[in-house]
Amino acid sequence: MRLNEVKRVYGASYKPQEGDWSLFFGLPLTDEFTKEDADNVYQEIWELGSGAKYDKFNMVDEAFNALQYAVIFNSMSEARQAKKRLQRLSRGRPRFQVDYFEIAYWDPTRASQEDSPG
Hints:
There is one protein chain. The protein has 118 residues and is of the alpha+beta class. It has a single domain, classed as Alpha-Beta Plaits, CATH 3.30.70. 36% of the residues lie in helices and 24% in strands. The chain has helices at residues 3-10, 35-46, 76-90, 108-115, and strands at residues 21-28, 56-61, 66-73, 100-105. A 4-stranded antiparallel sheet has the order 2-3-1-4, with helices on one face. A hairpin with a 4-residue loop joins strand 2 (56-61) and strand 3 (66-73). The protein starts with a helix and ends with a helix.
């Protein structure tokens, strides 16, 4: 993901701050697992947070027929709990596969270095 995509992802509704953790994950779509199912799974993960303080986005990766999501949490433990919940949901009905998931720390100093030209 390029930096300008990350800027669009977080948008103006919530700016990530130092101490925030992001859970990124991808959900491949199949005949049995549709976009509506993926959105329901995502909504359940998003609700583990507390509303407006948590940003969300989704992107369609047409090359892999998958949806990509990200949720921002206040702590790493919250992000880990969400990751475990995602794994549990994948074993339910409808079954689905999690393409990938990653927990990342938001580092504003690194982001500002990437923003600078040259």
